[in-house]
Design goal:
By secondary structure, this protein is α/β, with parallel strands linked by helices. It is 36% helix and 17% strand. The strands form six sheets. A five-stranded parallel beta sheet has the order 11-14-17-10-18. A hairpin with a 2-residue loop joins strand 15 and strand 16. Helix 18 crosses helix 21 and helix 21 packs across helix 22. The longest helix is centred in the last third of the chain and has 18 residues.
């Protein structure tokens, strides 16, 4: 009996674990037998691997071949094991030195012609391999730039199985045709796509709405959720689309985390392996619950809009038009910062720490002026009540916008601050927050848990008088109190205060209660 071994990676959501791929050639009925809980796509690897080996000029062993995937108790999914199975099999057949592949992690799907095709989810797979002590990974050439984002990992890229075999045998590389380039297309059925924000957008374009522009600045500085209500044409969408211009680039570790999610979803753009700017997602109001929070079959679980907007912005325009169940599904990600999708085969976890921006008209007819509204009061109440109280209770900043006046439309552009000016204040406030939160797992005021917020970051008693009165009247819940404290700290950070004062807490209370139904 001859035996050879290499390794690959199995993904569950954005988490992965290293799999030992062992091949043994023994006497018996000729054929390839896979063990280790493979799914259908993995079971079909025997046909892809056989054709790829033949078309690479190699011989298929005419004996019984057993390929074992360890740990055997963990389900294995997908076609990313093709490359590791082919190399382990050929090493067992002594077509390549067994020692040359024993320490490698091999990730890639094989075409019938022997090409090594690009895959989705390569970055989190390489991250998992690095976290488990692996040092060298073999990936498809089209995914090489993505794999090289992982620090300390040696990346070997290959376009064909024949080329990889020459490398393992220490032979001159073959002359091959141009390889396929680009990333795999996004998965079918994903109803959410990233909206491109033109680079020339600027907050100074917004005329009037001084309070709303201030709310955008607070949201960007502290990661606070935001709700704009008002008639059409008052600037709700225009304001929301300029929120990304106030946010700083992603930090290196966060950029890797965000890119890993998009790698799993297959939404990475060719030539841009690393996402460095906060993502901005604006799904249509017909989006389903699965496309919003993620889902799919047990074998193919995909991240939804809340995860694709991780560390960025999720903008829901015309929020009352969304199905109520879809909106209420946001409540758990808003609280916990992640989505857990459970299926009978197991559970997948996707990070989902995003800034939610809601925009809503006051009624279904969406009249530009209230005097022109044809909706009865009951219809208006029913329309606005589509946004549930528990969802609104998780929104930090709420504003009712009115159309800009004639004077503001004509002259306010000269006095409005640009995005660069506001972004500089946001950056200073974030740095102040990070210094205060040094030594903790939190990066922004919005991430501080309620118990820790009340225990370690409670403002002075004289600053809390307005909040105490609201609690006494019953107009403020315990969750609302936490929201107000977080926003008060952000307002204080923007103002350069060491701790929130009465004006900071009062401003936070006003922004939380404004527009509350």
């Amino acid at each position: 009996m001859t035996l050879a071994k290499t390794r690959s990676v199995s993904l569950v959501g954005v988490d992965g674990f290293v799999v030992d791929v062992e091949a043994a050639i023994t006497s018996g009925v000729p054929g390839l037998h896979l063990v280790g809980l493979p799914d259908t796509a993995l079971s079909e690897a025997r046909d892809r691997v056989r054709a790829a080996i033949f078309n690479s000029g190699e011989d298929w062993p005419n004996r019984h071949v057993t390929v074992s995937l360890f740990p055997a108790s963990m389900p294995k999914k997908g076609s990313t094991f093709d490359l590791a199975i082919a190399i382990a099999l050929l090493a067992a057949a002594e077509a390549v030195p067994a020692r040359a592949c024993a320490g490698l992690v091999m990730i890639g799907e094989l075409g019938l012609d022997g090409r090594i095709r690009p895959i989705q989810g390569l970055l989190p797979a390489v991250l998992a391999a690095a976290n488990q002590g692996c040092q060298t990974v073999v990936v498809p050439s089209s995914n090489a730039a993505e794999a090289e984002l992982v620090p300390g990992m040696k990346v070997v890229s290959a376009g064909t199985l024949r080329g990889l075999l020459c490398l393992l045998r220490d032979e001159p590389p073959p002359i091959e045709e141009d390889e396929e380039s680009g990333s795999p297309p996004p998965p079918d059925g994903l109803a959410v796509r990233q909206r491109d924000i033109p680079p020339d957008l600027d907050l100074a374009d917004v005329r009037g709405q001084a309070e709303a522009r201030r709310a955008l600045e607070i949201s960007a500085a502290g990661g606070h959720h935001l709700f704009f209500a008002g008639p059409p044409g008052c600037g709700k969408t225009m304001l929301a689309e300029r929120l990304p211009t106030l946010m700083p680039p992603l930090e290196p570790d966060i950029a890797l985390e965000v890119t890993a999610i998009h790698s799993v979803a297959g939404t990475l753009r060719p030539g841009q392996p690393l996402i460095t700017q906060p993502p901005f997602y604006a799904p249509h109001h017909t989006a389903s619950r699965a496309s919003m929070v993620g889902g799919g079959s047990g074998r193919v679980l995909q991240p939804g809009a809340v995860s694709l907007a991780h560390r960025g912005i999720l903008f829901l325009d015309e929020a009352p038009e969304f199905v109520a169940g879809t909106l209420d599904a946001l409540r758990q990600p808003l609280e916990e910062g992640e989505v857990r999708i459970s299926r009978i085969e197991g559970m997948a976890r996707f990070p989902a720490r995003f800034t939610l921006v809601l925009a809503a008209n006051p009624c279904p007819c969406a009249a530009a002026k209230q005097v022109d509204c044809s909706c009865a009061p009951g219809i208006r109440r029913k329309y606005t009540s589509r946004l549930s109280g528990p969802l609104l209770d998780r929104i930090d900043l709420k504003l009712e916008l009115t159309p800009a006046s004639r004077a503001e439309l004509r002259y306010d552009l000269e006095f409005a601050e640009s995005s660069d000016v506001v972004a500089e204040r946001v950056q200073l406030a974030r740095e102040r927050t990070l210094r205060r939160l040094a030594g903790t797992p939190w990066r922004s005021n919005s991430e501080i848990p309620g118990p820790e917020l009340r225990r370690r970051f409670t403002p002075p008693s004289e600053a809390m008088k307005g909040v105490d009165e609201a609690l006494h009247r019953g107009t403020l819940s315990a969750r609302g109190l936490d929201r107000i404290l977080r926003v008060a700290w952000t307002i204080a950070d923007l103002a350069g205060h060491d701790e929130p004062g009465p004006d900071d807490v009062g401003g936070a209370l006003g922004l939380w209660s404004a527009g509350r139904q």
